[in-house]
């Protein structure tokens, strides 16, 4: 039976406590906070008032608190942003010393203390702890990236662009990061309009190529026409934002002078052509 591997992710953990913690977060994030539990990490987006992406979050219930894991490089900024909306809500927002470990590749139940990654079973789980898990093989972050590239799963800090990206262009719908029945939250209007008016014209998708990955932001080209742009990648594989008109047309694509092949994950539901 294969054992789980683990790697430490560049994420930080905030702890939200207080009687109003769920109602406070419910009006701020794209998923239904009432679904937060201790067994699975609930994925959600935190948006601008105009509906543009700022952070992707994982929420986990731990006793009378909610853990929020967020990009490490902007965790303090996120904490300040949350605090702006606190007003008179009975909540406390604190940084913790917990690290975020991704676990994947094993058969059977996750190790004790780990929670499932709520996006896809193949993504394994996450562990919030001050020390690495015992008895498991440590792998480089590149190994975890290779898994998510194969599955087409984004890393918000590297694959989405703050103040620009839309959740539904990045798989938040099919991967369970948006609840369309929860009611109002910040940025909800644009997200709902994008879905119900069929306004998705491009999608983040797995790409493969020979050699090193083109730099993030490098344009994808269909001939001389721009067909998208590269996001995160490693040797031979990565994720790119792809204009669906070029994908449907089957036009050969290049990026940074390399031929690029685009694939569509089994979980992804692309909109029909107009």
General description of the model:
The chain has helices at 21-26, 75-84, 141-151, 156-159, 188-196, 244-249, and strands at 5-8, 11-17, 40-47, 53-62, 65-71, 92-95, 99-104, 115-117, 125-129, 137-138, 202-208, 219-222, 225-234, 237-243, 253-255, 258-262. It folds into two domains: 8-133, Aminomethyltransferase beta-barrel domains (Alpha-Beta Plaits, 2-Layer Sandwich), CATH 3.30.70; 167-262, Elongation Factor Tu (Ef-tu), domain 3 (Beta Barrel), CATH 2.40.30. The protein is built from six helices and 16 strands. The chain has a ten-stranded mixed beta sheet with strand order 6-2-5-4-3-8-9-7-1-10, with helices on both faces.
- Tally of DSSP helical segments: 6
Rg result? 19 Å
Report the sheet with the most strands, covering strand number, pairing sense and barrel closure: 10 strands, mixed
Query: How much beta, percentage-wise?
Result: 25-35%
By helix and strand content, what is the structural category? alpha+beta
Mean pLDDT: 96
As residue ranges, the low-confidence spans are: none
State the CATH superfamily name of the largest domain.
Aminomethyltransferase beta-barrel domains
Named CATH topology of the largest domain: Alpha-Beta Plaits
Shape: globular
Distance, first to last CA? 47 Å
H-E string: EEHEEEHEEEEEHHHEEEEHEE
Number of strands: 16
CATH class of the largest domain: Alpha Beta
Q: In the residues, how many domains can be counted? A: 2
């Amino acid at each position: 039976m294969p054992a789980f591997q683990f790697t430490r992710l560049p994420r930080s953990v905030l702890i939200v406590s207080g009687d109003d913690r769920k109602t406070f977060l419910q009006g701020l994030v794209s998923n239904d906070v009432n679904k937060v539990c201790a067994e699975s990490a609930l994925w959600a987006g935190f948006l601008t008032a105009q509906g543009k992406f700022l952070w992707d979050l994982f929420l986990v219930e731990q006793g009378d608190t909610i853990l929020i894991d967020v990009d490490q490089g902007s965790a303090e900024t996120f904490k300040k942003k949350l605090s702006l909306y606190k007003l008179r809500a009975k909540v406390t927002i604190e940084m913790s010393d917990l690290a975020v470990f991704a676990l994947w590749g094993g058969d059977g139940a996750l190790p004790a203390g780990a929670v499932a990654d709520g996006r896809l079973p193949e993504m394994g789980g996450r562990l919030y702890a001050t020390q690495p898990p015992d008895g498991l093989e440590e792998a480089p972050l590149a190994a975890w990236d290779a898994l998510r590239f194969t599955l087409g799963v984004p890393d918000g800090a590297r694959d989405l662009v703050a103040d620009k990206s839309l959740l539904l262009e990045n798989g938040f719908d099919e991967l369970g990061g948006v609840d369309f029945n929860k009611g109002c939250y910040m940025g909800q209007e644009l997200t709902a309009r994008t879905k119900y008016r069929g306004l998705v014209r491009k999608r983040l998708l797995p790409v493969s190529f020979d050699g090193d990955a083109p730099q993030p932001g490098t344009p994808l080209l269909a001939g001389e026409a721009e067909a998208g742009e590269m996001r995160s990648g490693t040797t031979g594989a990565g994720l790119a934002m792809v204009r669906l008109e070029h994908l449907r047309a089957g036009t050969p694509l290049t990026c940074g002078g390399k031929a690029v092949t685009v694939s569509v994950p089994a979980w992804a539901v692309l909109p029909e052509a107009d």
